Known about the structure:
Two copies of one chain form a homodimer. Chain A is α/β, with parallel strands linked by helices.
Amino acid sequence: MPLLVVGSVALDSVETPSQKRDDILGGSAVYFSYAASFFTPVRLVGVVGDDWPPRHTEMLRARNIDTAGLQVVAGAKTFRWRGKYFQNMNHRETLDVQLNVMHDCTPVLPESFRRCRFLFLANGCPSVQLKFLDQMPGADLVMADTMDLWINTQRDELLQLIRRLDGLVLNDSEAKLLTGEENLVLAGQRVREMGPRFVIIKKGEHGAMFFSKHETYVLPAYPTAQVVDPTGAGDSFAGGMMGYLAEQGNFEPKTLKEAMAYGILVASFTVEDFSLDRLQKITREDLRHRMNQYQQMLTF
Amino acid sequence: MPLLVVGSVALDSVETPSQKRDDILGGSAVYFSYAASFFTPVRLVGVVGDDWPPRHTEMLRARNIDTAGLQVVAGAKTFRWRGKYFQNMNHRETLDVQLNVMHDCTPVLPESFRRCRFLFLANGCPSVQLKFLDQMPGADLVMADTMDLWINTQRDELLQLIRRLDGLVLNDSEAKLLTGEENLVLAGQRVREMGPRFVIIKKGEHGAMFFSKHETYVLPAYPTAQVVDPTGAGDSFAGGMMGYLAEQGNFEPKTLKEAMAYGILVASFTVEDFSLDRLQKITREDLRHRMNQYQQMLTF
């Protein structure tokens, strides 16, 4: 079943303790789409400027990602993010953000995309996320991501959004900020009480936690020795998870847990190289193989 | 099969964001012993002063913990630790340490204990740990814990100890300090290359990682909403793990993984109250019940 994502499409410059890359393909909607495309057709909605290399669009199309919703705005520049990772790759510093085209242009949802039943609202301004949600009243499963900026500056709109979601994905520090609760189990439960049917707290190298009314669980990250660039891990996680849900066409508790595991595994590949470089070298079969190892790891 | 532990026996004063306790039962050997006693008879070796409340000894004895190696030194005072946990219970500050009796007196290994085949050297000065190890040449399984202090001040002795161990238990920051490696998978592998057959990296609320020549895996912590006092979690983990190994009488890969899971679960109970208060309220049946939930959580 196709899956729609609205989010950022970016050119990133990334510095790690050992390497540096400029103007590489990035953005939440890009990582999400590529991750989801292992499982299901994807429809991408976003905006770029006319500096956007067409080869990126071609690459995405070749993955069964429909780019009809990717608007190229003439005279504008693509969103750019520049960041630096420290020795401990869990900590990063944003060195520069140039919103560029994203400052003025909200992407438009193509008419043909509106009946998509699986929707992911990648991290973005909650009032814009709400506008997209309003345009898709028939969606069966709506998930969203957010960040500290919106918790601090648009709390009311964010809470309004959260109430209407099926699933919210956020990281551990955001869950603490949103609830004022330091214990992640309590924080997750509190966020869920704000309205969504389920909440996922991402813990980076420590995995992810799931909260629904009747279930609380945690799955560890897949232990990879090769962490080159963590950028996009969270969006890859969400893409892998929701891609699997869309493929399965249901969101039963059992499917949700399998989906979360697939999200974790796609993310474990993403971090093994810059941009989409690692994901572009693997197949669904590699994911299946790592899934077998992961399940074996958790069996005793 | 009986299990011998050498380590600290202490009176702790603990402050958390919501509560405060003075002079409560603590110490690595105490937490370890109690945790292990769910599975196997334990022999405890340590020193206390004459301010030591005899009721603690009686309580330990009632748990099938042989206290013949617990020496009460007249005219001396018991080791005291005072610490404070911050809002995020993963961070604590040591406010005061009074070595007292532990400053001058090294506990003596009773003759009757020397043929014990399972030995745990709780965190302590590596040269003293080595002396104990020398006294037990017949031990089948020797595990030890350490800390940043010894990595910084007695590195040579520590490396000498590590080479002779079957298993080393240390926390994530210690593994990074010991190896200079930020990636925990690489850090764990590096520590294992220093000699032990297996290495366990404790990650607090995020669980624990296991490294042997042929296996690398991570198990998450059991998600408990009730974290009252994390003191002793690491020693409880080691005690639960090694207690189970001693009970099973082997350390096959399968048994080691089960043991690690039991360690995680005993620790998850320890943190639910101060001192041994929570552990004293549970039975092996409660552990079995939580194990079922834990295994279910990790199955998909």
